Amino acid sequence: MKAVAVTPGLQVEDPRSFQDTERTVPIPGDRDLLVKIEAISVNPIDTKVRRRSPKTPSGSDVIGWDAAGTVVAIGKGVSHFTLGDHVYYAGSIQRPGANAEYHLVDERIAARMPQSLSFAEAAALPLTALTAWETLFHNFQLPLGLDSLDRTVLVGASAGGVGSMALQLARVLTNAQLIGTASRQESSAWAKSMGAHHVVDHRSSLIDQVHEVAPDGVTDIISSQATDLHFSEYAELLAPRGKITILDSPTSVNILELKGKSVSLHWENVFTRPVHQTSDMKVQGRILEDVARLVDSGLVRTTLRQEIAGINAANLRTAHEVLESGTQIGKLVLTGF
């Protein structure tokens, strides 16, 4: 089968960073689906893993976590899928990635993709939808409907993949006030289209801007990037007993800034359940089923913003360059081998 391999530790400009290659089609294990990949999406985790040295977490040089495709074989323990099902999923960072013609995924973390979407539109959703859902409803325990009227959520980098899904899910399923951050007119407009009630500029001081629309501060914060830069502002903005979820890997934050208000800090790693084979691992499949229903009901839409035809080394290099530029709005998807 065709696959795209990476050489960990190289910069994206290096021609050796991505290489077209041939690999053996994998054989499904007990709970595995063998999926013929139709579309893959690129996320910041892809660029981080590619830049790692000397190897990836899985030990494989094929990365990629976000895929949509068709089930072509199943393991003997599979009970929820049949051949021909169209599925979407994020996968596990400790297994070879989806930048290949065929890919294995545990059935418990996959779901049938929304019927109203193309493969490309569906591939844009899984990783960011799971991250947003786990943050909002597991970490923040945000109540559904009117019970969340007293909550104000600040969504950092709200025009990105996770931000876009967090805004949509919170807007549709709760009555929380939603404040996004963005730095350009285009990204601000996108965040508002995703559900933000207000958008503030994260290039300037957040405190005054947020207090203009939320005088009492915010109850919850999603920090997906630049946490080191904004952490002290977040600590000041958070209400007593508030919650913050961090997605990136800050190196210089002082968590004691949260102690006086009894603020709780959460980490969010979408791969925790599949990597550690937790007893509730199948929750991720159920989340994706719920997201599919919301999409097919017209309540949530794909965050696909840019589509590139052809899953190959050259196009993946281009996709990684776009992500590393920090200007991507929504999601970028590659389709077809």
Set out the fold topology:
Elements: E1 2-6, E2 18-22, E3 32-42, H1 44-51, E4 67-74, E5 86-89, E6 102-106, E7 110-112, H2 119-123, H3 126-139, E8 152-155, H4 161-173, E9 177-182, H5 185-194, E10 198-201, H6 206-213, E11 218-223, H7 227-237, E12 238-246, E13 264-267, H8 272-276, H9 283-296, E14 304-309, H10 313-325, E15 331-335
Parallel strand pairs: 8-9, 8-11, 9-10, 11-12, 12-13, 14-15
Antiparallel strand pairs: 1-2, 3-4, 3-6, 3-15, 4-5, 5-7
Helix pairs in contact: 3-4, 3-9, 6-7
Structure write-up:
There is one protein chain. The chain has 337 residues and is an alpha/beta fold. It folds into two domains: 182 residues, Quinone Oxidoreductase, Chain A, domain 1 (Alpha-Beta Complex); 140 residues, NAD(P)-binding Rossmann-like Domain (Rossmann fold), CATH 3.40.50. The protein is 30% helix and 25% strand. It is built from ten helices and 15 strands. Strands 3, 4, 5, 6, 7, 14 and 15 form a seven-stranded mixed beta sheet that branches. A six-stranded parallel beta sheet has the order 10-9-8-11-12-13, sandwiched between helices. Helix 3 packs across helix 4. The termini are close together.
